Amino acid sequence: MEPISTPHDYLPVLVQAAIAVGFVGFALSAAAFLGPRLHGRKKEESFECGIEQQGDARRPFSVKYLLIAILFVLFDVEVIFLYPWAVNFKALGAVGFVEMVVFVGFVLAGLYYVLRKGVMRIE
Amino acid sequence: MSQLPATDPRSTDLVHGRDLSELTTLNLGPTHPATHGIFQNVLTMDGEIVLDAKQTIGYIHRAFEKIAERRPFYQITTLTDRMNYCSAPINNMGWHMTVEKLLGLELPKRVQYMRVIAMELSRITDHIICNTIIGQDVGATTPFLYVYQWREKIYEIYEEICGARLTTNMGRIGGWERNWSDTAWAKVKAVVKELPAALKEFDDLVLRNRIFMDRTIGCGPISAERALAYSFTGPNLRAAGVDYDVRVADPYSSYEEFDFQIPVGTQGDTYDRFCVRQEEMRQSISIIRQALEKMDKLGDRTTYRADAPEWVLPPKEGVYNNMEELIWHFKIVMGETEVPVGEVYHCVEGGNGELGFYLVSDGGRTPFRLHLRRPCFIYYQAFPEMIKGGMLSDAIITMSSMNVIAGELDA
Amino acid sequence: MTLATALFLLVLFVVTLTVAAYSTYAERKVAAFLQDRIGPDRAGPFGILQPLADGTKMFMKEDFIPAAANRRLFTLGPAIAMITALMTGVVIPWGGELTLFGETFRLQGTDPEIGILFVFAIVSIGVYGIMLGGWASNNKYALLGSVRAASQMVSYELGMGLSIVALVMLNGTLSLGGIVEHQAAHGWNIIYQPLGFIIFLVCAFAETNRSPFDMPECETELVGGYHTEFSSMKLGFFLFAEYTNMFISSAVISTLYFGGYHVPGLDRLGLDPNLTTLIGTAAMFAKTFFFIFFFMWVRWSTPRFRFDQLMNLGWKGLIPLGIANVLITGTVYHLAELWKG
Predict the structure, then answer these.
(1) Which one of B113, B305, C57, C113 counts the least CB within 10 Å of its CB?
(2) Residue B204 buriedness (CB in 10 A; 0-12 / 13-18 / 19+)
(3) Which chains border A (3 or more CB–CB pairs < 8 Å)?
(4) What is the ipTM, given to two decimal places?
């Protein structure tokens, strides 16, 4: 096994991030500087298919989307648990695999429960 | 109809009992990419589900019925262009035939066949637009831009016949303004020959596509009973399973001589509407083919209008060079010819359904009253019922599959 | 980090931008080809200057912010989308080792042990760009679009993560460089992971918001989706980020399943190491471009899903399949080990 990553490995990532931020900052300011700017009350209204806005977009939204987000968090954590095991899959051998099958079984049971509960039933 | 059936879905109120603070109001229109015209739907939604819809119409209402009361008969053709502008020639022919019915004019066979060809061509353009737009609205852009070139080819035929493309103002009361050119005939034959292959490709691309089927089957359905209650006609009614077609039920322009089939659906959903229109295009091609054969058998290559000088505007060369034709021209334009007093109703199978003209004449040079039976106006009334409980995406393709044309809706 | 790496990063940045810019051109040409049209042909010969014209247009347009919008987040949204799109390229191995002026370096920005997880992390941050942009607009269509985008992207991230688990089990490493080396030694992963590849490919379409998963921006329903209110370079960034993501996704697909820069049998020819590396890089780009083309091919051939169908496919289709793939992979591996003795 090679040694684990050192902070040194992440320097290029930072450099790349700096390049990206620099480019985005430059392009956005350049566009803001180059383009025309004309203000108007009617013009600056939010688009609502060409008529007066009805209500506001800052309203409580259907809870179903939130449920999906929460489920994502739950299951994503479980998927992340699989990664350390997956990396060492060959080293852990058959016993490790059986142990993981049990874990995956729990995940599947959870998924089955969630789907049966009708979280994905949009209607 | 006094009593709606007990199963009237309009009575199911999906909004009642819901926490209103969780519902969103979304405007679909007036200027929305999905409305293909200008009309507004205010949707009450819970997340993606449409719970209620209210329509507003009249954004491009131009008071055609009122304008028509001040216009001589032959000038009303231009108004009909601007109703269902996707199939303007059918509207034109429908209007000509209405006036001919009032006048009691009988047209030569060749003119009738030419009208059949023009009407079937425009039915094809209408259906091409509707079906490719369904594709466009479910996200399949390629059929839209690929099959659309056939509409272009048919528009070239229009150009050959009358010089215009979209608002055609085609033909005259009593026939045609001139004989069709050889180029026009060649182009008609080319379309008849090549279009079936393009339709086949269109079918192959979407008809059995899993995503397309999942999106459209069961989307925006309407039962035959409800459709009849709304007085649906045309492809939308046939998709619900009722084989009503004006061309068969009340033949005009010699349609009774043609051999064609009326495709019907079973569910009345978007997929059925799509399939019905696809098949109707094939039937239209077959009708045009038959018309061409019948014209060959007639052997007549010159007649293009009825021999009724008191009604049919004479050709311009005649007006400039002959005394008699100048007189007729003057009399017709100035409204000096005797128009019978009476009421007529004439309907044609428009691209979208039964397009009716109810004409009351008091003997003057203009109609006393003209009512237009516009199928889109009727379909649009059923729109909320068809989309309630479905998703936003369903609402959009339901609308495009009903082929609601704003110009005809508002007239 | 050496100067060479810094230079490489700059080159990578320019290449990413160029490929993304020309993907917009390619997209229109591919669409035109599929639809029997000509496509852009006005700017320069065959329209090859079209991306430049588009870019210039983006710069010269008015930078419009609606009055009701949250100004800071409205700017932050597209910025995040673009920055995250540009960042993932750094861990992808674009080629082997190159020796120039007596110095040897890899054609890869860096190869951390957790390469794949890094890509996932950055892609996840990309969701914030769309989410913030849509919410900050204070527009119902934009909000609906961004909510759709967020639900879709998080749902498909699960499937994507699961498809990778099975791959990692066989390769024994999370480093992208390591995965390519493993494939060079044991054969491409597509042979061992066909199901995983399909899951990953489908998820990649969803993660990049490409048709048939372009729900968040389907213009016939939501006007412009999450970027309804955006104009100028901010709109440009959203669109550009999509193409950059497509490029990076294609590169990741090539790396994970098609051997990356590895060309079978090339090292046996005994060519100059530098030449071998360059051929490898060319192969990597060829594979990547094929997948970019594939993205376009699919976009111009299929309709799009409905939101619930898309969620069902993700949660009831791809996630169980992904788990099944993990179990199948493990079982087959252990059976094979048993059989080998």
Answers:
(1) C57
(2) exposed
(3) B, C
(4) 0.84
